[in-house]
Amino acid sequence: MEINSYPPEVTVNIQLSRHSRVTAGVLLLALVTVETGGLYLVRVVGYGEEVTAFQLGFARAGHAHAGVLLILSLVALLYADAARLTGAVGWLGRLCIPAAALLMPGGFFFSSMGDGLTRPNSLIWMVWIGGVVLAIGLITLGVSLLRSGVTHPAD
User: Fold this and answer.
1) Each residue of 25-78: pLDDT tens digit?
2) Which pTM value belongs to this model?
3) Contacts of 154 (CB under 8 A, 6+ apart)
4) Which of 15, 38, 109, 138 is the most exposed place for a label (fewest CB within 10 A)?
5) CB neighbours of 81 closer than 8 A, spacing ≥ 6?
6) Do 56 and 44 meet the contact criterion of CB atoms below 8 Å apart?
């Protein structure tokens, strides 16, 4: 894929690996679920669906984490390919952040499900595990980029 921008003589060439292209396609489709999840928040805030303040807070947190982590996942794919990650490190760098995008919001949503809850149920563990998985992905990707030795012609 080639992206041309102003000024015309500047060209950015982005080449994704097959793994990153497939993962990006899945992540973009997953963003549609975040969009439709926003409809639930509209129902709660705009139409008075009955939830506790705790449940509203967790719904907002889950929705925000889902969107932000999916966008971060898309950006991370570019960095994983830029660092030329392969093997187990490549999988960690490409998939831990999207896994966290499932675990953390899932933890917020599932731990607050039920009538009149004012505290999270036992599924809150998903948020904590998601945080650990996110850290693994970020550390893997960050260290890999610092160690990659890939240089740019302008460097």
Assistant:
1) 999 999 998 888 777 778 777 777 788 999 999 999 999 999 999 999 999 999
2) 0.83
3) none
4) 15
5) 15, 16, 17, 20
6) yes
